[in-house]
Amino acid sequence: MASSEVHPGSEPSRWAYLDRVRTRPGPFTNPDMFNAEGVVAAMEKMKVLVIGAGGLGCELLKNLALSGFKNIHVIDMDTIDISNLNRQFLFRQADVGSSKAEVAARFVEKRVKGVKITPHNNKIQDFDEDFYMQFQLVVCGLDSIEARRWINATLVNMVDEDVEDSYKPLIDGGTEGFKGQARVIIPTVTSCIECQLDMHAPRAAVPLCTLASIPRQPEHCIEWAHVIAWDQEKPFPQLDKDDPEHITWLYQKALLRAREFNIPGVTYSLTQGVVKNIIPAIAATNSVIAAACCNEALKIASNCAPFLGLPDDNYMMYSGNDSIYTYTFRHEKKDDCPVCGQLARDLPVDPAWTLRELVDSFAARPEAQLKKPSVRGEGKTLYMQSPASLEAQTRPNLDKTLAELGLEDGQEIGVTDPAFATVVFKFRLRFKQ
Amino acid sequence: MLKIWSMKKEQQKAENAAEGTAATAPKKKKVTAAQLRVQKDLSELSLGSTMSTEFPDPDNILSFILYIEPDEGMYKGGRFSFSFNITPSFPHEPPKVLCREKIYHPNIDLEGKVCLNILREDWKPVLNLNAVIVGLQFLFLEPNASDPLNKEAAEDLRNHREGFKRNVRQAMQGGNVRGETYQRVLV
Ligand SMILES: [Zn+2]
User: In chain B, which residues have their Cβ closer than 8 Å to the Cβ of A376?
Assistant: First the structure.
């Protein structure tokens, strides 16, 4: 194995062990997909996007750079806060206030010779499909479900069945306290983030109303002090969650209530955590999940071993709560997933048709046969059969032509019908010349 | 690199073979998941005679007002309105619902916040707007003293139901109950 010669120049020994993994087939390697000679060059050419340069992002950037990826971009709109320094190890005290993406990129470039990291101090929504199209892999280390859903929907929308390069595998890591998950999504092929939304149980909102009368957990007592006692007694004009005096007041109130109901466990720091809605970020969880994500990236890029996602399992969950537990399974794609479940079908229309003619045509289309279709485009309600007020407001549109309504060739419309409660039809308007 | 092509082709062989070729057109705005879901929920809505909606901007279906005119119960004869604001995270997040009038109700506070379990801890993405609307309607038929947001009103309901009823009428007429002046909501 002359793998070290593949890297003329810097630090050949650093890559020796990596090359043993990625350039040699293992017991599970698919020989049809593995090409030992091409691996290193292919990975050096590959452009990888990392979204998020926080707890997971720091780990991901370091891992990817040490796994042989040479061209990495990173997006993060945040600046470094002093509270990040305990686990976001690419940042130092002098970096507080600077862009996470920029500092992280510089740090890893300095420590791993030959890697180029392009930082973007932006929101992911600042970029369009042309930007995302340049990457071969997207790895997410995000803490927001909204951002995940956005990038997921964007990558699914980018799929063009006729262009192989338009399928961008999405590797998503997430952590919350001692728990985390790593998953791989092949847009439109495997179950997507939207299909898996039920896997993110929304953080249990403390049931303000009912549990105000029957608390069961220390958190309930704290939330009671926070929401009800504070409002009733108003010990200070405005609650300042960073003021120790205010937190102490809440803590003592919560403690009294906890005694009343015999609930142990109310502490000052728990009070602070509940009130500020803090879920502790655990550095070890981040490193386990980032390692799992980076492994998937390496396997997808090199084909040295089968990756998560196809044909079987696509979701790995990890829990470090009670010793260590991982479980890997296949999350099924949902046929009624609003993002990937149904791709828009082409619908040939004449721009001179009235909206009424279009609506009537859905009754005749064999795959639809809709009796009461409601029709909308993005930001434009064309015709809604229900509720009554919206029907009345949109009825005048029925006599307008598609052109008059401002519809364009290629525009997507959503069609719903109460008879098909689980299905939403998406069509792409194709104007007949 | 990923040999997605062959995998995808395999998967689709059984499916739609006769779809025709998709001409590569410039990308156009696509309908977002939240909007599609709201559209679906709205087209399945059954409001009955006691409820109606108002859309200040019909093109923005994520924001609307629901009117409820209970035809039975203690709140009969009133007209109550709720603002619905739906975020792009719907249905992962529940709609944000506020009562627009100041009313005397154990489960609605003086700022209009509504105590309804499915708007908070019991919300699930499989629930729809109809479930929320039915829940709101139910709050007027069966105000729930064990689930209070307006604690005084709840105690009032629990301890002297007849007095509570009188106070509800008083408040609905725009009167004063226990030092608070309420908004007239009678139609
Ligand atoms: Zn999906």
Answer: 31, 35, 39, 61
